[in-house]
Amino acid sequence: MSGEVSESVGSVPGNSQRTQGIDLKHTVQGPDRPAVEGPSGCAGSQIQGQRQEQQDSFGWVVDSGFRNVGEQCVLLVADGLGGHAGGATASRVVVETFGDAFLDTRGAISERLEDCLRRANWKVGSVARGNPSLHGMGTTLVAAHIMGGRFLRWLSVGDSPMWLFSTGELLRLNRDHSMSPLLRQLVQLGSLTAEEAATDARHHRLRSVVMGQDIPLIDLQDDAIELDPGDVLILASDGLETLGEEEIATIATTHATSSRAMVEGLLAAVSSKSMPHQDNATVMVYIQPAA
Q1: Distance (Å, rounded) from C-alpha 119 to C-alpha 141?
Q2: Average pLDDT along the chain, 291 residues, taken 10 residues at a time
Q3: What is the pLDDT of residue 1?
Q4: Which of 53, 132, 160, 215 has the most other CB atoms within 10 Å of its CB?
Q5: Domains of the chain and CATH, by start
Q6: How far apart, in whole angstroms, are the C-alpha atoms of residue 139 and residue 129?
């Protein structure tokens, strides 16, 4: 991931007490590997592409402390930026800190997710301030919260996509905080042609990022969306967007009953493109179990 962001003022972390009910915490960052299986119905993996280092991180936390509603988990994908060491560090710190914070809090889900983001954002800034070589590092983040196996909420910053694949249709759920949506608006207004927008240098510029400063844009889904049996949730870094949405939907259809096979199929399709500047690509898939 590479991008530019505007300067802003720093933020501070919140406080809470550790609670019980931790089943699993897992964070992954590394070169190409077989898919890792997580909570029921979930798997994830990543490829390095043509980059010198893996700057994406992904992971999950599972909390079984709410027996009246069942298990809840958070799936996390982060895409780092800010040089090789900086991007890799930022994404790892955010995934780990967000996961720890989630297991450390109770209360309304949206408030917990916002608190986790505050802590992760503060931690990134703190680590960067302690090491001049990490100055300017940052990361995107998409965090999907699943309650009782079927009620979905999310929080995201940046351009890492999250899709819902349901009844044969692929729908992007979270907002894109790059310049791409604004360029599309300029095309609709007639200020740019589609060709000009596609080659515009601002295409991948980020309007919001987690880097220890104020976060100007946060996409927070407060009201839960109920997943139907067989629904598929796909979280990714933007390296997956080497594939078009039709290609993603086709692969999701082919592997609709296996999250691991779907993850491996998506990443294999990216690799098969043999793009000369292929970015890191990370994919997590959750499949709502059949009733």
Answers
A1: 13
A2: 37 28 56 77 92 92 64 93 83 96 92 97 96 93 94 97 97 92 76 77 86 96 96 96 97 96 97 93 93 68
A3: 58
A4: 160
A5: 22-172+208-287 (3.60.40.10)
A6: 16
Element (H, E) at 221: strand 219-226
Distance CA 153, CA 223 (A): 7
Q: Which of 219, 220, 206, 156 is nearest to 8 (CA)?
A: 206
DSSP state string for 30-57: -SS-PPEE-STTEEEEEE-TTSSS--EE
pTM: 0.86
Token readout for 152 is 């979905």
User: What is the model's pLDDT at position 284?
Assistant: 97
Q: How far apart, in whole angstroms, are the C-alpha atoms of residue 257 and residue 134?
A: 42
- Which residue has tokens 């790892």? 92
> Which residues, including other chains, have CB under 8 Å from residue 37's CB and lie 6 or more apart?
43, 259, 260
Q: Which amino acid is at 144?
A: A
Q: What is the pLDDT of residue 189?
A: 78
